[in-house]
Amino acid sequence: MSPVAVNKRLLFNEVPDGYLELGVTLKLDSTSQIDLDAPLEEGAILVKTKALAIDPYLRNRMQGPSAKGYIPNFSYSLGEPISNFGIVVVIRSENPAFQVGDHLYDHFKFQEYSIIKDPTTCRVLKNEEKLPWSAYLGTLGMPGQTAYFGWKLYSYAKSGETVFITTAAGTVGAAVVQLAKAQGLKVIASAGSDEKVDYVKSLGADVAFNYKTKSTREVLDELGHGIDIYWDNVGGEILEAAIDALNIFGRIIMCGAISQYNTKTPYGIKNLFHAVTKRITIHGFVVADAIATHKEDFYAEFPKLVAEGKIQHKEQLHYGLGSAEQALIDTFKGDNIAKPVIVLDESL
Ligand SMILES: NC(=O)c1ccc[n+]([C@@H]2O[C@H](COP(=O)([O-])OP(=O)(O)OC[C@H]3O[C@@H](n4cnc5c(N)ncnc54)[C@H](OP(=O)(O)O)[C@@H]3O)[C@@H](O)[C@H]2O)c1
């Protein structure tokens, strides 16, 4: 008899109006089954999900079928599992490039098992450094790549310059803090709690502050020398304050605008004319743009830096698909203390 298993899934149930609503936006589903012995097509693999990442951009994909996503056709369909970057383990293979037991990194559905008919985009993670697998969803995954590509391609950083980084205790921000310090910059960093501020200081930030209890504008004014680079993870009013603080020929790396993801009335930036008067370069980017050209550099360099302790990282583990929605809600309230990783199977 074939071993038929329940294949738990996390489904997109309702388009949120503002913040996600627990148990309403997403629904855990146990009605799907999978025959783990059923024949696979040539080239296909059967995988078991080990862990899935929670990233802020998942909210941008929940705008419903009529919204135009920033990547075409990238929004979720109602009643279908959400998906994101994850790590799966091959349990059966009809593809010579993938062996049983291989750990793969790619975009996967939030479900326990998947049949991947065309696994060519999956990367086999060798993990020669024997790092925790969760790191491959944080600093060694998409968010770390974001920091690495964005900094390398768009910062034009020079030793002695000053950079301001928001959401600096998050995965992207923390990596940028460390890249900037390694290059000899003065780092000004903001985060949303005193604990996060202490963490950012431990990473080497020269000035770190809690933007909820101290005015960003005042902190930047008090520097007395302006900033040369602003790494923007938040957008809104803080972006406006950073534009005012930028020096002539300053650069803004527009990585994210998390303060705007759950609001219906986006903040209107009032001082954009300074882009002219100060000759500011504003560079918006999406990590996917650089993956094809720069991902091998990343995998050659970053895991070693992490293993040597030169890039520090933290993940916050949550267990089971059912924990994913709360983890996502926490991300937008600043209640996450590190990159949330949803662990489905610790044994793999
Ligand atoms: N361009 C790209 O390709 C790309 C790729 C990945 C990520 N990103 C962006 O990079 C940023 C950081 O991502 P991450 O993965 O490292 O996430 P993260 O920083 O680990 O988690 C999100 C953090 O954002 C802060 N936050 C939440 N709501 C906020 C609000 N209303 N105003 C200000 N801050 C708020 C919170 O930190 P505090 O407690 O410090 O407020 C929260 O912990 C996000 O904007 C994300 O969308 C962009």
UniProtKB/TrEMBL annotation:
The family database entries (SMART domains) matched by this protein are listed as: PKS_ER
Protein's UniProt keywords contain Oxidoreductase: yes
Give the residue range of the signal peptide: none
Could you tell me the superkingdom of the organism this chain comes from? Eukaryota
Q: Where is the Enoyl reductase (ER) domain?
A: 23-342
Going by the UniProt record, its keywords in alphabetical order are: Oxidoreductase
GO molecular function: any one? oxidoreductase activity, acting on the CH-CH group of donors, NAD or NADP as acceptor
Q: Does the keyword Oxidoreductase apply?
A: yes
- Entry-linked PANTHER family: PROSTAGLANDIN REDUCTASE (PTHR43205), PROSTAGLANDIN REDUCTASE 1 (PTHR43205:SF7)
User: Can you say what this protein is called?
Assistant: Enoyl reductase (ER) domain-containing protein
The scientific name of the source species is Clathrus columnatus
